């Protein structure tokens, strides 16, 4: 496909999401590990999270269903997609990709398909990449998904990680549009690999750094240095939002919604207060769904979209940070 000489935009045609039916409350967790509801809520803002029945649900099924819901919302069929990108770190298999299986399940063959690994930034990274690929003229219609079955990599005998994470998926359909005023106005993506050991999933003993050799968490499960991640997140979250708003001329009054990765209520509230953003413009669902990594921002976007809170008159901002360590933002106008 050749790029047109005429400028064009990228439209979000529809959104979708999927969460498991099973609820894991803080009281449920207190039966598995030494913790309680008050302790968890005070430190994270989380009251409950959704977890998959791993015998029949997982990253693939949630990705499939969230993208199907987004296609339905857009009034489209899978066969209309040119590409599927799935942001995830919890794929059931490294080969084939979750995206390829989703494409087959939704009749999107022969659409291109691949998974993208950027931890909690997976959905925002994927949205930014999809926008660029459409702008290049290479693709016309792309399905973007963030899907994570975090319960498959969480060690529920360790309270440092088990209290935080839940399972969820969110999706969006992006399509080339003749109106050049819509789409992604500004985006950024970054990483600092020197901090990788603060949040990682080791598969073999030799992948565990000396400083973490005494960790009781089993191999193949997520490990996190909570203090280091919190320190990084509090600073980087605010910087990334400030950068996105500054580069696009947005103010707390002119921005629509700021859709933050649902990492920790204290991190989100700290950034909101320092930026002077009113509470109604910073969506929160961590209390009900926990931290669902790459599923987080897509789930928030779908809930806001379906509630009619994404306005045409006001651009919205998506922002995330995660393992890598990575960070990303995107400012969008619909």
Commentary on this structure:
- The protein has 10 helices and 13 strands.
- The chain starts with 8 loop residues before the first strand and ends with a strand.
- The chain folds into 2 domains: 9-181, Thiolase/Chalcone synthase (Peroxisomal Thiolase, Chain A, domain 1, 3-Layer(aba) Sandwich); 184-333, Peroxisomal Thiolase, Chain A, domain 1.
- The strands form 4 sheets. It has a 5-stranded mixed sheet, with helices on both faces.
- Strand 12 (316-322) and strand 13 (326-333) form a beta hairpin.
- The relative contact order is 0.19.
- The protein is an alpha/beta fold and 334 residues long.
- The protein has helices spanning 26-30, 37-44, 59-74, 98-105, 122-135, 159-162, 226-248, 265-275, 286-289, 295-306; strands at 9-18, 23-25, 48-50, 83-87, 112-116, 141-149, 167-177, 183-191, 199-200, 223-224, 258-260, 316-322, 326-333.
């Amino acid at each position: 496909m050749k790029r047109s000489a005429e400028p064009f935009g990228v439209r979000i045609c529809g959104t979708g999401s999927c969460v498991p039916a099973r609820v894991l409350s803080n009281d449920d967790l207190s039966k598995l590990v030494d913790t309680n509801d008050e302790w968890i809520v005070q430190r994270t803002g989380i009251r409950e999270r959704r977890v998959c029945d791993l015998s029949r649900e997982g990253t693939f099924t949630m990705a499939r269903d969230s993208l199907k819901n987004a296609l339905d919302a857009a009034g489209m069929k899978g066969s209309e997609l040119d590409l599927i990108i799935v942001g995830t770190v919890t794929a059931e298999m490294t080969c084939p990709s979750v995206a390829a299986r989703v494409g087959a399940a939704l009749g999107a063959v022969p659409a291109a398909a691949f998974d993208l690994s950027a931890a909690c930034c997976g959905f925002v990274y994927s949205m930014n990449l999809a926008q660029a690929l459409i702008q290049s003229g290479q693709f016309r219609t792309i399905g973007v998904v963030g899907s994570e079955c975090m319960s498959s990599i969480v060690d529920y005998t360790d309270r440092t990680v088990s209290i935080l994470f839940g399972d969820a998926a969110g999706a969006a359909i992006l399509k080339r549009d003749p109106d050049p005023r819509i789409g992604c106005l500004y985006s950024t993506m970054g990483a600092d690999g020197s901090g990788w050991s603060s949040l990682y999933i080791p598969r073999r003993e030799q992948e565990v750094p000396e400083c973490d050799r005494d960790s009781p968490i089993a191999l193949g499960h997520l490990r996190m240095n909570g203090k280091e991640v919190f320190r990084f997140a509090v600073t980087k979250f605010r910087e990334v939002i400030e950068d996105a708003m500054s580069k696009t001329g947005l103010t707390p009054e002119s921005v629509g919604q700021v859709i933050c990765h649902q990492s920790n209520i204290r991190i989100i509230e700290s950034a909101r207060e320092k930026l002077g953003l009113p509470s109604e413009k910073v969506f929160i669902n961590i209390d009900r769904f926990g931290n669902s990594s790459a599923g987080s921002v897509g789930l928030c976007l779908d809930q806001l979209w379906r509630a009619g809170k994404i306005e045409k008159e006001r651009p919205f901002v998506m922002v995330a940070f995660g393992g890598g360590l990575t960070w990303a933002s995107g400012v969008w106008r619909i």
